[in-house]
Protein: Expansin-like EG45 domain-containing protein
Organism: Lyophyllum shimeji
Amino acid sequence: MYKTLSLGFVLGLISQVTVVNAVAGVTTFNDYGTQSTVACPGFSPSNSQGNGIFAAAMSDLSPLWTGSPCQGTKSASNCNGHGGCINCAGPACPNEQQCGHCFNVRCTGSLDGETSGACSGRTIKVKIIDACPATHPANYCKTAAFGGTVPDREACEAVGVNALDIATTARSALSSFQGNLNIDI
């Protein structure tokens, strides 16, 4: 038996499909299991989010961030001049609208110029459970402008770089590189 579908029904189905184009960016790695909290309410600070899904934080300067940037200001008085922060109280992040959303991530190369490793070619899924605010002293104090040695793009500081901070357990699934990675999201 054959059924005919109306054009309106088919167009209605197509309109419900969301397409997200790949975005190039960078990723750093974080051990969520050592954290006591995450920015997204209702999510546990765990590297594994179940079913082979890894935890991740998204920079509030990312082009994929859909809420307002986190509310805070950068102040040298919060930094110890050597990359660490004295008062690590962070900004308010009331609009992490990507919380709970999943993204596919694939390694495209070493961010740090390593030549002894390679990308695995695998695509992994990460779930956004945390925010990486550019105005949090734990992030900006690491940069050269505040006495640290971490490049801006590796501390959620570069606008449009689309930094993800992914669970450390995902590193070997993405590549055999030891440092941070260039990725497609």
Summary: Residues 1-19 have pLDDT under 50 and may be disordered. The radius of gyration is 19 Å. Residues 110 and 133 are 24 Å apart (CA to CA).
